[in-house]
Amino acid sequence: MKESREIVPRPINEPFELERPFNPHLVAGTERYPGYRDAFAQEGFGLLEYWRAIRKRLWLVIGIAVLATTAAAIYVARKPNIYQARSIVQVDLEQANPDLITSDRQRPVSAPDPSYFNTQLQLLSSDTLLRRVIKDHNLDVNKDFQDEMNKGSSSTLRSMLKAVGLASDDPKKPADTNSDTSLVSSSLISADEIADAIRLAPYVTIIQQNLFVEPVRDARATFKDTRLIEVTYRHTNPELAAFVANGIGESFTTYNQERRSGTSRKTSDFLQQRIADLQTQIRTDEVNLVELKKDKGILKTDGESTLVMAQLSTLNRQLLEAENDRKLAEAEFNAASRSPESSRSLVEDKLARFITEQENSIRELRTDVGKRTAELRATRDRLLEVFKETAPEIKEIDRQIESLDLSLASAMTKNRLELEEFRNRSSSVLLESLRTNYLKTKEREDKIRVTYNQKYSEAQGQNIGAVQIRLLEQNIETNKGFLDNLRKQESSNDIAAKGSDNNISVAAFAIPPDKPIGPRRLMTVFAVLMLSTLFGMGLALAFEYLDDTIKTTEEIEGLLQLPALAAIPSIDSMPRRRLLLVGKNDNSEPDDVANSELLIHADPRSALAEAYRQLRTSILLSTAGHAPKSLLITSSLPSEGKTTTATNTAISLAQTGASVLIIDGDMRRPRLHSVFGIENGDGLSTILSSELSEAEILGLVKTDEGTKLNLLTSGPIPPNPAELIGSEQMANLMKILSKHFTHVVVDSPPITSFTDGVLVASMVDAVVLVVHSGKSSRQVVRRARQLLSDVGARIVGVVLNNVNLNSKDNYYYYQSYYHRDNYFRSDEKED
User: Fold this and answer.
1) Is the pTM of this model over 0.90?
2) CA distance 97 to 409
């Protein structure tokens, strides 16, 4: 036999130890529920849970399926029949015509190439070919195509999506052909062609949406490739479907013929226009050449040089000399005009140079006179041998000698005078002389430069004229060469266009079909039905996954690892005939609802009363050795039914003959006095706020005659309920009451909202946590359990309150148990 241990409540002011105190509930729970963590671990939904979640929201699944299927049926019923027309195009290898092969137009013979067939396959559905089909067959003015474009642009769904920004402008709307396309035009395509392609783009899109181009394969034995291409087009008009399919094949064969022959519908016109333009341009250039030679008078010297160029060369040399003289004179003038010191220095330099020059000049003159005098004296000596000194020849020589001496003396005198004059000259006179010399040299340079610029401009004009004449001559020669080539090409293209064979042909033309191929209405409706059903089931499972409330006892045991003591059904889910008013007889009206807090007393044979008796049994057997004397019934949040549970639990305990006291520990929103219809005068707050004796305390306890239940109301609402609950008086009060009553049931405020319940939980033998079915959040309930565990509270289990038996969540769990009214009714009939 297991050893029982005495339960000693821990005082409120006792510090919480790391090692948790002995908890009979945990021991008993471990023994009686050893597989909590393994059996109720969260492993996701099983098949049965999936079915229950879907069954619970079956009308949601059915509603979505019916709505989607009905909408799909209406949609496919309004869609017109679609017809499919088929034509076959044959693609052979390219073969050159041997009669047309020349040296300047030779083509290699085509070899088998798989990429050639694939290329033609892609060209059949290209935008370029479809634009040509539209223009060749005037599909852009076809009434059916216009209606389809208008229908696409006026779509209600597209308008709604466009209004909320989920769709752009209608892509089928023809673009503005007046827009500027010069930015995208190039040498390969003109601006008119680009504008035309933009205009036809919506029609191309319409054809591409319903066009299918596939190669034909022989599948009788094995898949074998052929040179046939199947062109299939679908439309609501069978004649138009056949017309478009044939038009694509016809335009494709014509396009290939033009490509192979190297010509097109515009080639001949282009060549003729180009030839006429070149002839006109050549004639114009020749006339301009004659006029230009007449206007530009160019006189040439020997070689390629002209008279103007020779004059320009002479002027260039003179300009360089004048520029050098001007620079020297300018340098001297600038040097002399900087400052008086510079002027004196210049005068001294000039004087030194002048003296040197004069001395050199006198020295040279003296040397020359000396040489000539010596020569004349030598000649006189020779003549004296023949003549006398009075002879005229001798006198002439003497006169010459005297003349040389006089010229030497005169030169020396002049030199001395010039030197004196130069020494007497002032620096201002010298500066003015230098300035005059500078201005003369500059004026000479400017005159030569003006003449040079005139001749240079004249030479430039002649050079430009010569270049223009040469360009015109080259342009005329080039255009004549182009003209000869274009004439040869025009002749060659005319021959090639008439002699080339087309390797692409239409093997089978399309005819208007008799039977439509779509839409597949029945299959579409069935597919929508299946998909909408799956979507509804997924949505139901998603709602179930997002539902965070607790609904069954299995969820409680798996989440909190605590036993579910009982499941209390809601009053609305019980049979109405069993709900009787307290103090009424059996003739009461069936619509009157009894006071739910005293229902176990009003109808002890109801399933609700049986649920509270099951709760009583679970509480009495929850602790080892003996039943708990003090019991706290609380909840995590308000309005979860803790007061109702506490009242009916106390009544069920009193029905065993035990002395039971129920305390209204909710001193914030007390309800116990209103349940039993008594005054809330002195009560718990009076005891905790006063020094009362044990007899005075027991004197405040009231007794309900109907239920034989002892009551202690909350008393006046104090300003500090938590301080009163956590005081030493509260712990002493619980000890006193436990000695005089078999069971003490305490109703406290929600523990996650106020600390009152947590404080009381540490003073009682057992705690029962009330959870509202379908309302209490798992996170909040888990938080409440953690708060109670942190203070060492002895949680004996959880009560699932207000269970809706009509809900599909709980129907499978509780239908057999709580519908035992049939058993009571059978007893009544036998009685």
Assistant:
1) no
2) 117
